[in-house]
Design goal:
GO molecular function, one term: methionine synthase activity
Protein name: 5-methyltetrahydrofolate--homocysteine methyltransferase
GO biological process, one term: methylation
CATH architecture: Alpha-Beta Barrel
Largest sheet: 8 strands, parallel
Radius of gyration: 17 Å
Low-confidence stretches: none
Keywords: Cobalt, Metal-binding, Methyltransferase, S-adenosyl-L-methionine, Transferase, Zinc
Mean pLDDT: 96
InterPro entries: BHMT-like, HCY_dom, HCY_dom_sf, Met_Synthase/Corrinoid
Shape: globular
Helix content: 40-55%
């Protein structure tokens, strides 16, 4: 097994992987098929993606379990397979990673809202994540990454679920709009202070924004909480609807140039999100290693 991820990133910048969803689509994931179901039906395709990111230079790969909570899976009739899907997702990543690469188990939002905006209580939200977390932990994850969160309450519910199951390190990323606030109005400064104060080991931002705007988010976080370990995973640019599909046009070279700026800011984990490929990660790896 790899050494402790927190001790490691306190010594060096770690490179995370890139997009999973768009890569699965390239592998043939049909419209209407839930990505996490491929952990069961097409594990070899998922593993191919993990291996491509490792070959590109990733120190951390994320499991194909982003939407693996019971609420999301229930909408696809998979509510009875939550534990199985998540354990399998972690096992696939662990097999690809071997004993040199870290496996971070992806835990994404439920798509529902806490009271009073929605119908779920905090306890409901915690329960929504418990079987997912149990599955990825028993599948061999080294850390949990609670990602693409827009509500601090939901992020804390996921954190509580993790703490009920294990003592693995927790990384948490919020997702920000072009207003530099989340959908629920959370500012970068508020996010980093709150999450760092409740014991999240690495805090940051992912998705929604391209590299340039994401730099602004991380600068605000760094100013608000200089002691916090930070992670960044920008999209490969803002999504554009073109030719009947969503495309991302930020090049590997552009992402790599911003990766140097993230490193100079003190960010400890640098990766990418929607629209990115192993080529983007390869360029980021090279720029961070030489910058």
């Amino acid at each position: 097994m790899p050494k402790d991820i927190i001790e490691d990133l306190d010594r060096r910048v770690l490179i995370c992987d890139g997009a999973m969803g768009t890569m699965l689509q390239e592998k043939g994931l049909p419209v209407g098929v839930y990505p996490e179901e491929w952990n069961l039906s097409h594990p070899e395709k998922v593993e191919e993606i993990h291996r491509a990111y490792i070959e590109a230079g990733s120190d951390i790969i994320q499991t194909n379990t982003f939407g693996g909570n019971c609420i999301k899976l229930a909408s696809y009739g998979l509510e009875d397979r939550v534990y199985e899907i998540n354990r399998k997702g972690a096992e696939i990543a662990r097999r690809a990673a071997g004993d040199k690469i870290y496996v971070a188990a992806s835990v994404g939002p439920t798509g529902q809202f806490l009271q009073p905006v929605g119908e779920l209580t905090f306890e409901d939200m915690v329960e929504a994540f418990v079987d997912q977390v149990r599955g990825v932990v028993e599948g061999g994850a080294d850390a949990i990454i609670i990602e693409t969160m827009y509500d601090l309450g939901e992020a804390k519910a996921a954190l509580q679920a993790v703490r009920q199951i294990c003592s693995l390190p927790v990384i948490c990323t919020m997702t920000f709009e072009t207003s530099l606030r989340t959908l629920m109005g959370v500012r970068p400064e508020e996010a980093v202070r709150e999450l760092w104060s409740v014991g999240v080991e690495v805090v940051g931002a992912n998705c929604s924004l391209g590299s340039e705007q994401m730099l602004k988010v991380l600068q605000l976080m760094k100013e608000a909480s200089p002691e916090a370990r930070l992670i960044v995973q920008p999209n490969a640019g803002l999504p554009i609807y073109e030719g009947g599909k969503t495309v991302y046009k930020e090049t590997p070279e552009t992402m790599a140039a911003f990766a140097v700026q993230y490193k100079e800011l003190g960010v400890r984990i640098i990766g990418a999100c929607c629209g990115s490929t192993p080529d983007h990660i390869r360029a980021i790896r090279a720029s961070v290693s030489s910058g």
